[in-house]
UniProtKB/TrEMBL annotation:
Name under which the protein is recorded: LacI family DNA-binding transcriptional regulator
Keyword Transcription regulation applies: yes
Signal peptide: none
A Pfam family of this chain: Peripla_BP_3
Keywords, ordered alphabetically: DNA-binding, Transcription, Transcription regulation
Source taxon at top rank: Bacteria
Domain HTH lacI-type: 12-66
CDD domains: HTH_LacI (cd01392), PBP1_SalR (cd01545)
Molecular function, one GO term: transcription cis-regulatory region binding
InterPro entries: HTH_LacI, LacI/GalR-like_sensor, Lambda_DNA-bd_dom_sf, Peripla_BP_I
């Protein structure tokens, strides 16, 4: 009796990725493997397609008889947005060719137990793992991978650990700078759309927002804080609530660009001028920030560079050579953020 269940959706294939990205399967394969002669635009399209479809490469197809293949995995879960995952992929793919490394992508099912996740990664035959948030804050997962002999580098963990290499940026400081920027423009009713509580980065950004209000002698108004989960849809719901109030905010700071873009959409629907009547700012500086109108003022979090550095740290630890040993990256890297001002923020309307 066949075990095939026709009701179960088939996992996406390389051809599905190629079709979504609008390229040939060969080009998609070259982009995923970090091969040369693939444009940055094509790499971005393929990375976006992988993120949207949840494609997991067939690692066994990459084995070469009689030869050891260097293999690193990038893990992601359901809480990782497609834009964030796309930037992580691009960074890792940028570094992989120079290190002679194959990058695989492993999706962690939300309901899987920690032993199941560890077993999944062990079966992928990888030497190291890049762990983005919130997976990097799951101690049992990190301990299980380490016990299995798999090297781990965390991206933006909640706190640095002597036992775990990491690459991060200052979420709290960045949120502080954005909030201070809006205060210095003259805004006094500044709303915050939070991310999911599963991401500690969301908590750090809230703390930065609160710190800036306190340091500028402004009262924290709880009704100006709305919960989101980093998704575009959650941004729509939060913005509708904020802008539907009798006394609405003059500025909205969303904890990522997807939610900020959603707030811009709701403002357009309600015929609220951005930035004439309402300033809206985001966080991350994903390609979306530069693609909407008005172009989004946001915090540039160096996601791509953090992923590239994580790949470099793993390779240096796993396969050191003379050059790596002489210029090895430190175990804990903190990369700078940047406030990128575009077109979505301005002074508040007169009288507000």
């Amino acid at each position: 009796m066949s075990r095939h269940d026709p009701s179960r959706p088939k996992p996406p294939t390389l051809h599905d990725v190629a079709q979504r990205a609008g390229v040939s399967a060969m080009t998609a394969s070259r982009a995923l493997n970090g091969k040369p002669r693939v444009s940055a635009e094509t790499r971005e399209a393929v990375a976006a397609a992988v993120a949207e479809l949840g494609y997991v490469p067939n690692t066994s197809a990459r084995m070469l008889a009689g030869r050891t293949v260097r293999r690193i995995a990038l893990l992601h879960g359901g809480a990782t947005t497609s834009a964030y995952l796309g930037e992580l992929l691009l960074g890792a793919l940028d570094e992989a060719p120079a290190r002679n490394v194959h990058l695989t992508v492993e999706q962690c099912p939300d309901r899987a137990t920690m032993p199941e996740l560890v077993a999944q990664i062990v079966e992928a035959h990888v030497a190291g793992v890049i762990l983005p948030p919130p997976l990097c804050d799951r101690a049992e997962l990190v301990e299980g991978l380490t016990a299995a002999g798999i090297a781990v580098v965390a991206i933006a963990p909640d706190r640095e650990s002597e036992a775990l290499a990491s690459v991060s940026t200052d979420d709290r400081g960045a949120a502080y700078e954005m909030t201070r920027h809006l205060i210095e423009l003259g805004h006094r009713r500044i709303a915050l759309i939070e991310g999911t509580s599963r991401h500690r980065s969301s908590t750090r950004r809230r703390h930065g927002y609160v710190d800036a209000l306190r340091d500028h002698d402004m009262v924290l108004e709880q009704d100006l804080i709305e919960a989101g989960d980093f998704s575009y849809r959650s941004g729509l719901i939060a913005a509708e609530r904020l802008l539907g109030r009798a006394e609405r905010p003059t500025a909205i700071f969303a904890c990522n660009d997807d939610m900020a873009a959603a707030a811009v959409t709701i403002a357009h629907q309600m015929k609220i001028s951005v930035p004439g009547e309402l300033s809206i700012c985001g966080f991350d500086d994903t390609p979306l920030a530069d693609a909407i109108w008005p172009r989004l003022t946001t915090i540039r979090q160096p996601i791509k560079e953090m992923s590239r550095k994580a790949m470099a740290i793993l390779c240096t630890r796993l396969w050191p050579d003379g050059q790596d040993e002489a210029s090895a990256d430190p175990e804990h890297l903190r990369l700078p953020f940047e406030l990128r001002r575009r077109q979505s923020d301005a002074v508040p309307p007169i009288g507000q």
